[in-house]
Amino acid sequence: MTWYRWEVLAIAAVTSVACALPGTVLVLRRHALLADAVSHSVLPGIVLAYLLVKDLSSPLLVAGATAFGLLAVLVIEALQRSGRLRQDAATGLVFPAFFALGVLLVALQAGQVHLDTDAVLLGELAFAPLDRFVVAGRDLGPRAFFVMAGVLALQVALLSTFFREIQASSFDPEFARALGLHPRGIHLGLMTVTALTVVTAFDAVGSVLVVALMIAPGAAARLWADSFARMLAASAALAVAGSILGFALAWWSDTSLAGSMAVAVGGLFVASWVLAPREGLVSRLAARRARRRHF
Description:
The chain is mainly alpha-helical. The chain has helices at about 5-30, 35-40, 45-55, 60-80, 85-110, 115-120, 145-160, 165-170, 175-180, 185-225, 230-255, 255-275, 280-295; strands at about 130-135, 140. Helices cover about 80% and strands about 5% of the residues. It has a two-stranded antiparallel sheet with strand order 1-2. Strand 1 and strand 2 (about 140) form a beta hairpin.
């Protein structure tokens, strides 16, 4: 395997873990669909920031995208709190509206710029190593790897610092509020990290793979682990395994890397749903048969 392929695999692995950690918390809090909403709602922020600075490499694009991701979450919560819409309905209304707004802005204002919806949706992981991180004339490696490694380090630092608060608010928000914590503030902080992760990840892998990496490993880990810490560890391991399997599948079949990795993490979830020791389909069928015999 050439160094180029190793770099692609390294970017995929660090991106998968960076997506899986906040995704696991979203799955645990039953807010998994918000990952999809955020990933589609950031496009208007990117376009508006570009129209302001006229520079695709400006960090203001990340800031604008993150701001619109948070705005989408706040609008969804406002609709939900009105009592007229449930969260799934509010999410289904908001993120298509935001994404459609972004598509219109691209078509009307940025049609001559390499800022297209196909790149946002599908990405192209194979091209990510071409954008290099150069310091003082020295090539240190792919820029995407260092960006995602920095996001992952931030996530680990926040999880280590606020582990008990996140755990308490995820399992029992009312108990967390009784302890003097602020579940809403924790939720907004989590969505800020989620939006930042989505923005930095989909430039390389596309929002489709980002959503798959955020939801599938966390959902699979929920079937294997019975504690918050173990869920996080299991989701990270499953995300890396899915990246490796997807990379191998894409290399063998000569097809899309992002699509193969999405299929791989989906396959790992199906395998977990069938084979998990306590929550898996096989275990539940065996337990049901044992209860029948006992009865």
